[in-house]
Amino acid sequence: MKGAVPNFAECFVDEGDINIVRILKILQRNSFGGFVIDDHVPQMTHDTPWGHRGRAFSTGYLRGLCRALDSHETEAIKPAVTFG
């Protein structure tokens, strides 16, 4: 998302105010054992009401980031956020 309540806009995960890479690194460093999902996904032309196209982009983006972080793992830091 860009902005804050009540003046915000939904945007793609790589366009928002949150640094997703930083967040995933923090989760990895702290051995986060939960799951990561997309939320406020923008509506795209000819998309479903649930937003399958926008969510496909978000899921792929998050998966790619997690794999990139996994590939830089060290013995001291074992990633917990994976989509393997």
Describe this structure in words.
- With 84 residues, the chain is mostly helical.
- Helix content is 36%, strand content 7%.
- It is built from 2 helices and 2 strands, in the order E-E-H-H.
- It has helices at 20-29, 52-71; strands spanning 2-4, 7-9.
- A two-stranded antiparallel ribbon has the order 1-2.
- Helix 1 (20-29) crosses helix 2 (52-71).
- The chain starts with a strand and ends in a 13-residue tail after the last helix.
- The relative contact order is 0.19.
The ordered string of helix (H) and strand (E) elements is EEHH
Rg estimate, integer Å: 14 Å
Helical coverage, percent range = 25-40%
What's the overall average pLDDT, rounded?
83
Output the number of helix runs: 2
Distance between the termini: 27 Å
Q: Which residues form runs of ≥5 with pLDDT under 50? A: none
Shape: globular
Number of E-type strands:
2
**Pairing-aware structural class of the strands and helices?**
mainly alpha
Question: Secondary structure elements and their pairing?
Answer:
Blueprint (H helix, E strand, L loop, with lengths): L1 E3 L2 E3 L10 H10 L22 H20 L13
Antiparallel strand pairs: 1-2
Helix pairs in contact: 1-2
